[in-house]
Amino acid sequence: MFLRVKCSWHRSEKLAAILGVTALFIGGSGMHGSGVQLTNGEGQQAVTAQPDVQAETELATKLLQKGPWGQLETFEVLLEAPADLLRASEPKSVRTRWFFGKMKGDAVAELIRQTVKQEDLADRLCDQNRWLEDPEGVAVFPRTEDLVLLKTDARVALYKELAKFQENFFHVEPEILYGSSFEDWAKGSEISETARQFLKTVSYRHGSMLQFSDMPALLGLLSTEQERMAVLRALSRTPSLVAKIIINSVTTDTLASYWHKGFRLKDTSAFMSSIKRHKEVDRMDLLHLLPAGIRKILYTFPDPTSSRSGYLPDCHWSALNFFNTQPLDRLADPVQATAYTLEKFTPIEPPYELGDVLFFTDTKTGDAYHSCAYLADDVVFTKNGRSPLQPWVLMRLENVKELYDMHFHTKISAYRRKDMIVGK
Question: Cis before residue 291, ω within 30 degrees of 0?
């Protein structure tokens, strides 16, 4: 089977566990008081857990299915990026620019008029005094007040066309407002009323997800650094599961035989046995059973200054390094990642096991646009793109697929390390 991995660069691919409950917020900036330090990997941006006052009483846990891994209990959190990464990601311009590539001016005007049925608004958008035509292509510079007037169906259709051109970064890679509604997403944030009203007006749904593509215009409405940082923090929120194992759900030997993969079985068994001696303890954090390399980076954001390979870590680097005590920097290079997969891994069918790498391949091209490492009961370890604003998280497999199905026609191809196959 031929496999070719490609990095998905979408910053928007903060995989979509659409939150039906108010989550615990984990922030890298603006946090104070008695937070809980989750992890502090070498060269990574650690995050500190600080429960939102409202969320603390509403936090809900979920029991997953029993299996050879035991039984997992999970709850959802939202990770906020550290302040230095947010400042580095802030757009340099607050002027909205729509790029239409090599389309002729008449074709651009026709597209706008066919999409925007509001005649007065279409006239303003087609005013060529606000256009720039040069050898690179046609660019349109809409007013912020005209963005507000776009109806939802016209916005969705027009932004879909704009997303075909990589120059339209915020349409190719829209922000996702996680939650069951706009109000659910905005809960607990410190965004100003101006930002709240603009976001609510111009956000739009793609499938089940609420998205936002007008970042430059929004930042242009805000007059203070405090307002801008509040917006950037809120929009950086990325959902993750936190998982615990119910240690009495299966026998110690059964737990150890599943979770020791790649480790020394007796060490895992000894640790679990020591926990079980305390009858008042019935759960332990899944983090303790993961490989050392994963423990260092889970729930953190990458440090963009620490890359030694010329590439920032992406999904393939993260999944293929799952069992490696020292991560191989070269796996951030798509060509090297492909070669490593074909050399060290072999295709497998379900059921999946700890550390299996699940590639999301485009059925049209055969390219693997995303990969993640399987843990247990359809919980996976993943990083969604190279962006420093993408942390390493735990997600449900169904939520990963839901988001990628929005961008590609995907299928899952699973690979297992050859030295992890029973009998080898």
Answer: no
Which segments in the chain show pLDDT lower than 70?
A: 1-59, 262-268, 306-309, 422-424
In angstroms, the CA 214 to CA 420 distance is 47
Amino acid at 317: W
Which segments within 249-349 are labelled E, that is strand? 283-285, 301-302, 345-348
Taking the alpha carbons at both ends of the chain, their separation in whole angstroms is 21
Detail the DSSP E strand segments found in 257-409. Answer: 283-285, 301-302, 345-348, 357-362, 367-376, 379-383, 392-396
| DSSP 8-state class, residue 423 | T
* DSSP state at residue 377: T
- For residue 133, the surrounding DSSP H or E stretch is strand 131-134
Of 299, 352, 344, 300, residue with least CA distance to 321: 344
Q: Which of 189, 160, 162 is nearest to 177 (CA)?
A: 189
Q: Which amino acid is it at 57?
A: T
The Cα–Cα gap between 225 and 227 comes to: 5
Over pLDDT 90: what percentage of the chain? 59
Query: Residue 182: in which H helix or E strand, if any?
Result: helix 182-186
The CA–CA distances, whole Å, from 62 to 137, 187, 327 equal: 51, 22, 32
pTM score above 0.70: yes
Q: Which pLDDT does position 140 carry in this prediction?
A: 98
DSSP state of 288: G
State phi, psi for 170 to the nearest 5 degrees: -80, -10
Q: Which amino acid is at 388?
A: P
321: tokens are 């390094």
Break the chain down into helix, strand, coil percent, rounded to 5: 35, 25, 40
